[in-house]
Amino acid sequence: MGAATGSGLNSSSDDTSGAGSRLPERYRVLLILTLVYAVNVADRFVVSTLIEPIKAAFGLTDAAVGFLTGVAFALCYAFASLPLGLLADRAHRRNMLAVAITVWSLFTALGGLAHNFWHFLIARVGVGLGEAGATPASHSILADYFPASERTIAMSVFAFGIAIGSAMGGIIGGLVSESFGWRSTMLLFALFNLPVLAMLMCLREPARGASDPAPPAPGHAPAARGFAEVARFMRGQRALLHILAGGAIADFAKGGLAWWTPAFLARSHGFTTGGAGLQVGLMSGLGGALVLVAVMLVMVRMMGRDPRWPCRFLAIFSALVTLPGIAAYLVGDSWLALLLLWLFIPFANFHVGPALALLQNLTPSAMRGLVVAIFLFATNMANLALAPQIIGLLSDTLATTLGNPGDALGIALSLSAIAGFWAAWHFHAAIRTLREDITRANGPG
């Protein structure tokens, strides 16, 4: 596999066409983009492991921590993802990824050097701006390497980046923090990105739409669409809207809770920062990886069957895993709480691969970067802006009544978990028009 030669963001001299000649290459691409996603998630997740020492260093309330570690990042990430999604439909996507990694690595390191609330806030804003450009470009590249029948599997493998990054942020972040402090931890995580950046630069840019049912002729990639045209198209795709809503609510109900779980274990069950990070890291990393393997195997069995099966799968399991999530934060016994969390947190991201694959199949190639960006806007506002802030505010409010910060945080987390049933309803509602909407996405124009 030769190195790409394009130097600018809009270069296309190293485009390739025809999926058949790239069979070995596409799996190397999938592996490297999964690693990119892993370090992306790790730089995000490690902050949740470091909540307690950061809170102590700057003298913050739970609401302030929720804003600093969640809202500040999420607002920049979510709003920047929209123009960067448009750019991913027009630009050289590999080079766009390289710039994104460089930016978020720099600001992750600056976060470790912050001396007050405002310095750390600026650093998180910068990380959000950098990471916003990565996922739309990655998804767009993968959709051009894998045909529709294989995208669910490819996106499920790509979702392993969440498990790897969560494990890095929880286990490595917690252990390094206990030995060297939270500042050194953030500097180390910035350095993790450098070898991944080097591997990324070995990838080639695929031709847009190369793996679609009717791929364009070489040199005639479909023209990117504007925001207004994409919005009009999405309004007519009811299944797409339900999957987008279900994914955002699932991220609120599960991902947002995982964000606060290390602090919950420290307050309610006496865990150290390293111990809480290790537990949540194992749940998110090892447990999450096992769940994603199981999801991938289920998707392989479903491949070629009724395209509505992934929606049924998402609806059923979103409802089932909500039950232990509600209970885990209310029980007083530490071992029972850990058992229930093992039945909940590993499933926090099980929906990501199937949902993203469904979105790709429901969207024409010229719109995928922006549609993925809109999905990221919704999910990250729910997961990183609303969930940390709402849970933090609930925790502060309940603490004044209960007088126990651990109990207050547990009740706030349990109440938030109920939203998982709402996500399940949206995934089920998508079934009604899914077939017609997929046909429309693959039609002319």
TrEMBL record:
Q: What keywords were assigned to this record?
A: Membrane, Transmembrane, Transmembrane helix, Transport
Task: Tell me which residues make up the Major facilitator superfamily (MFS) profile domain.
Answer: 29-432
Asked if the keyword Transport belongs to this entry, the reply reads yes
- InterPro entries on file: MFS, MFS_dom, MFS_spinster-like, MFS_trans_sf
GO terms under cellular component: membrane
Keyword Signal: yes or no? Answer: no
- Species source reads Croceibacterium xixiisoli
Q: Which residues cross the membrane?
A: 29-51, 63-84, 96-115, 154-176, 239-260, 280-300, 312-331, 337-358, 370-391, 411-431
Locate the region Disordered: 1-21
Per its record, what are the GO molecular function terms? transmembrane transporter activity
Write down what this protein is called.
Answer: MFS transporter
Q: How does it sit in the membrane?
A: Multi-pass membrane protein
